Amino acid sequence: MKDGYIKVAAITPKVKVADVNYNVSEICKLIDEASAKGAKLIVFPELSITAYTCQDLFYQDTLLDKAKEGLLTIADHTKSVDAVVFVGLPLAINGKLYNVAVAINKGKILGMVPKIYLPTYNEFYEIRQFFSGRNLDTTVTIGNQEVVVSTNILFTCKDMPSLRIGAELCEDLWVPNPPSIGHCLNGATVIVNLSASDEITGKNKYRRELVVGQSARLVCSYIYASAGASESTQDVVYSGHNIIAENGRKLAESEIFTDSLLLTEVDLKHIESERRHYNTYETVENKPYKTIDFSLDLTDTELTRYIDPKPFVPSVTSEREQRCNEILSIQAMGLRKRLEHIGSKTAVIGISGGLDSTLALIVTVRAFDLLGLDRKGIIAVTMPGFGTTDRTYDNAVRMIEETGASFREVSIVDSVKQHFADIGQDPEVHDVTYENCQARERTQILMDIANKEGGIVIGTGDLSELALGWATYNGDHMSMYAVNASVPKTLVRYLVQYYADTCNSETLCKVLYDVLDTPVSPELLPPENGKISQKTEDLVGPYELHDFFLYHMLRLAQSPSKIYRLANIAFAATYEPDFILKWEKVFYKRFFAQHFKRSCLPDGPKVGTVAVSPRGDLRMPTDASAAIWLEEVEKLGGK
């Protein structure tokens, strides 16, 4: 339960229709199994104590009385189980029969939630046996316990206040106004659904989309447990399709036609952080909801859910290719609008032979093609300096030629030497002044060419560089339209690769792949034996780590200790914990100290959920202190 995680289970037990003793025995065994694996919230299907397909047997007092006995047996079994358990049973109240979800915790029956929407169409005929619980608000006696029965109940953990559970049953989700909407608007962070959804062709895809979509719409965790193939197959077949989703993301899903125990962790801190972020997520006041408390022991939750080391990059090839095409289109359409608006037919780009300038050139080519402009209007400028290598220079020249842009070369060597003389800089001292003089000279050349040709300078810097402040103020930091400003470095590589694979030019593809194989470097220090001597990731750390830190800090608002924990899981096969901690400390130091560079960024298109524009996603004071973040990181070093 550390860091807001709680392990949850969606279980499909093997049942015998109307055999309560057998079903209760199976449920109790599965509760023990799930609890032994750390589950604190355990969800079984609709009417799981009797089985869903009893039909007119639900009229029999023998079955109904036995179901209540079975419920008490399960409750008694949970006395030593540290979990909250949801099971389903038929319950007669004042001469009417209801299909209810029952919450149990440590031997106590907490409350019951009746099903509201009873399907009576196609193969369904629930209204024959059951009444809707829409207006039901009462108490019943089960054994020696007085139990609340209501549709408007939130089950809240006293020991973990972010765990607030609302329940609905099967069809309740499939209607235009599901009860889960009200539950979440009144504070529920987790929705459990006790279901019995039969399987027909194509239905599992729709069911998955429905559950995942509801978790996104309500910004919640959603646990869906459905009846399985051991139900009666007289006219339909049940598949045991269990799904656990969180805020629009499927965390776990069972294979259909299996009696399964689906287990994973949900992140309640993430849910609450997201809701705080969205000011349109309005809570409902003064609605008659009952809050029923329960308790759980506060224990660490072992994480088994997948932690993606590259959260900005889809792992599935087809999804990644689609994402790359979308991003290139967004970037190009943004630049297209800017060129169209100012009436410019000229764009000026500094081409270094590195990844970022390559991507900027690709985007500019796309924008010119969209406008029907001659690519010769793209003035691609190489500006060799003290650190330029033959490899990057040759790649830059060939790339410009292959794209059909106009080629210009302006050496900065003499002008920078003169500047050194003007300011009294020793050319043999390779300090920050030595490096930044070159970056600013290049930017001045580009700006002046743009003025001379009536064009605009296209920025090449990416999101990761902006997050770390790895840019020369008023050097490569500045442009007239920054097309890469919200593209993280880990994604830049895939965008260039995607373009290489789809450009229909073998020569250009070869050049682009060599660019991809070139170490990331600003090339501001002299090469060694003709090779790049200044490798960015040796100086500021691996970009894949920094992108991971950036995503989890800005997108998910997670703490340094939680990010460190997740990074150690995600990069377990790549980096040692001390190495991760070292660069996490660097990340926070640089992120806060370098914000002054981000607070005056040029315009550029937002392409993803993380961006640092001061006019958009990141309204952060320039003089904010990193002290409490660094204090937390420092404490991690002692663990």
Strand order of the largest sheet: 6-7-5-4-3-2-1-14
Rounded to an integer, what's the Rg over CA atoms? 30 Å
Q: Please state the overall shape, judged from the principal axes of the Cα atoms.
A: elongated
CATH architecture of the largest domain: 3-Layer(aba) Sandwich
Per DSSP, the total helix count is: 20
- Point out poorly predicted stretches: none
Instruction: Characterize the main sheet.
Output: 8 strands, mixed
Distance between the termini: 19 Å
The third-level CATH topology of the largest domain is Rossmann fold
Quote the average pLDDT: 95
CATH class of the largest domain: Alpha Beta
CATH H-tier superfamily of the largest domain: HUPs
Helix percentage range: 25-40%
Structural class: alpha/beta
Number of strands: 20
Total domain count: 2
Task: Give your account of this protein's structure.
This protein has 639 residues and is α/β, with parallel strands linked by helices. It has two domains: 2-294, Carbon-nitrogen hydrolase (Nitrilase/N-carbamoyl-D-aminoacid amidohydrolase, 4-Layer Sandwich), CATH 3.60.110.10; 317-636, HUPs (Rossmann fold). The chain contains 20 helices and 20 strands. Helix 12 links the parallel strand 19 (456-459) and strand 20 (481-482). The two termini are 19 Å apart. The model has no long low-confidence stretch (mean pLDDT 95).
